[in-house]
Amino acid sequence: MITHDPQKITEELRNHLASHDRSFCFLFGAGASSAINVAPIPKAGAKRQYIPLIPSIVPLTQICKEAASSLGENFSKALELLENQCETSKKDVNIENILSLVRSKIDAIGPGEKLLNLEKKDIEKLETNIRNKMRFLQKSSLP
Q1: How far apart are CA 106 and CA 115, in angstroms?
Q2: SS3 assignment for 86-125
Q3: Among the residues of 6-94, which ranges form H helices?
């Protein structure tokens, strides 16, 4: 029977950290950046608001959808179609799956064709808009 010995684990970790010729690393999960609050310190007596370093998938999806919709009604309708495709294929409606569909549409569309009622250059514009929004969020959240 295998048992967990916390004292042995602690000693091994201590020995590993004490050795100068051994390297080590820490692996952080995908949600670690969402746990970091970058909201400014409030005035005395006020509650600090929560602004994550990088939003989790649900708020990030909403932010990217708003950015894409700002391009116009055709892009809003295309986004709705992409969301419907996610639901039809039983995938979560999030920015990762939407962006994957956008990229597959770019690969699939030919000259003079339309997908999502958009031409290839417009689908590429949609992808660029989403990616730029995510890039801007990452840059603006850094100190």
Answers
A1: 9
A2: HHHCCCCCCHHHHHHHHHHHHHHCCCCCCECCECHHHHHH
A3: 6-18, 32-35, 57-69, 73-88
Residue 90: pLDDT band with limits 50, 70, 90: very high
Using pLDDT thresholds of 50, 70 and 90, give the confidence band for residue 72: very high
| Count of residues in the chain | 143
- Under a CB-based contact definition with an 8 Å cutoff, are residues 23 and 17 in contact? no
* Residue recorded with tokens 């295309």: 78
Interval 63-67 mean pLDDT: 91
Within 13 Å, how many C-alpha atoms sit on residue 53's CB side? Answer: 9
Residue 37 bridge partners (DSSP): 52
Residue 84 CA to residue 99 CA, distance in Å, equals 14
pTM of the predicted protein model? 0.68
**Is 56 a residue whose pLDDT tops 90?**
no
